[in-house]
Amino acid sequence: MDTKAILKNSLNLLGRRGVKYLCFAILAAMGIALVELCISFIIQLLLTSFGFFDNKFKFFGYELPKLSIYFVSSALVIVAIIRFSVQLTTTQTAAFLRDYVLLRLKKNSLYRILYEDDVHEKSSSNINFKLSEVFSKSSEFVLNFTHFIFMFVQSAFLFLMLFIIAWKEAIVATTGIAIIGLAIIYINKNVSRFAKQVPLQQKKLNEGIEKIARNYLFIKLMKKREDEYNSFCDSLKEYSSKSVSANFYSNLSAQTGPFLGIFLLVIIIIISNNIWHTSSVVLLSFIYLLARFVQGLSILTGYFGNSNIFFPQYKLSLESISNSDFKKINKESHLKITFFGPYKDPSDTNKEKKIDSITLSKIESPEIVLENVTFSYPKSTPLFKNINITINKGSQVGLIGSSGTGKSTILMLMTGILQPNSGKIQIDGVPAWEYISKKEARIGYVGPEPYLIKGDLKENLCYGLSRQVNEEEIMETLKLVSLQDFVLEKGLSYKIGENHTGLSAGQKQRVCLARAILNKPSLLILDEATANLDEKNESLIAEALKNIKLSCTTIIVSHRYGILAFADEIIDMKNII
Question: Which regions span the lipid bilayer (predicted)?
């Protein structure tokens, strides 16, 4: 990604509100520099009031008056209030932009998971990598780089004031600062060198943990635990060493400025006093502003070093928002984040969820037709070639086959998630993706992992329904899936924990099947719904499917025959690939 693209995507990421707050805070940073000038002037007034200097000393061509100590103290209090206000503005703006950017990145990521068809975007390792590494550190980049911008503006104004007060001393300071700057730039090259390797190592770690977790039993049985452990520890040490090195050079960069700045200050005092004989009042103002400038330079280089550490992750974030829908995705919703925190739009407080009336009418069970369908993943040979499948209205059809035979792929084709290379796939006479997108189409789905929410049993059964249901309908449906006795004992108010505690694996799947049936779907899809169940629970689900035959078109994807006991047709994937 080139510099122009980085700048363009950065502006998109900040949005109008972010850019507006940033510009306002830059003005506040200029104000801080002016406040420093006022403080240097007030210090001189104080010293003059105490009699340390004669009134003949002038500042910007004006003779310093001898003012009351109370007047000078009052002026100092006013300046302190102004400084507090502008300093709070800059620091809060940086904190706001950090959280605002993080909110927009996560919102965009969730949108892409839910609404886009990129399979890589939905992989757990990719999601974990983005949330734990990319987005969090990108927001830290925004925080540090925003502070860097503010300190740069403040330091630039202080530097200009140094020339106004004492131009000779300012030239010496400029030469010294240039030398210090070159040293800091050299150090920061090492920061960038190590920092760009950190996200790569983090991604490798995430993938390693996921691989071990998914294949734990295999690793144990093959007696490879020690090898996997040692390999992972090596990757962990590699990640830690890169991260520590990047932080070391960042800290070294931050401390180099003030360390060399003290030597520069001593040199300027000696030259000014012995060669140029600059007046004490002017030299005092210059030394104060130079000290503040060197201090600001130290803070600035620290923020710049941290920005370098987090820039590789920030660049990855910008790549993730390069899709054209980012602006639309991040339009303000009813839950906003403001400069001082979140608030909810009062107009949304009393809004209730309404079920769209268009979904209440019964939709006829659809026919599914695959005609001369060919499909292949990028850079691979065709998985299917000119296949023809017809699933009749209201029938129950099983797709069976071992892993790798294309069961999940053909299901994604039937549901419009993937598009064929050639041929056509139609549901009820329209393209599959169009049917699935219809507002009035009611589709039931039960996957291998039960999708339950924290709440009671009734809340889970009604989750996502497009129609109102009463308790009588719920109990009838629970009877179909052999859960009536359990619910009569526990009640519909039975609580399900955050980790789905309180239900067995079979009960969880039957709750999900009951929820799908309650919605009175025209199309019901079971994708390896019994993969993690024993034969008893599988037979119970098969019985439930028998009870709803003809009420909807049902597709059952499985590698086991038990759930297909009452299917009208079984398609063996090995016969069509």
Answer: 21-47, 67-86, 141-164, 170-187, 259-276, 282-305
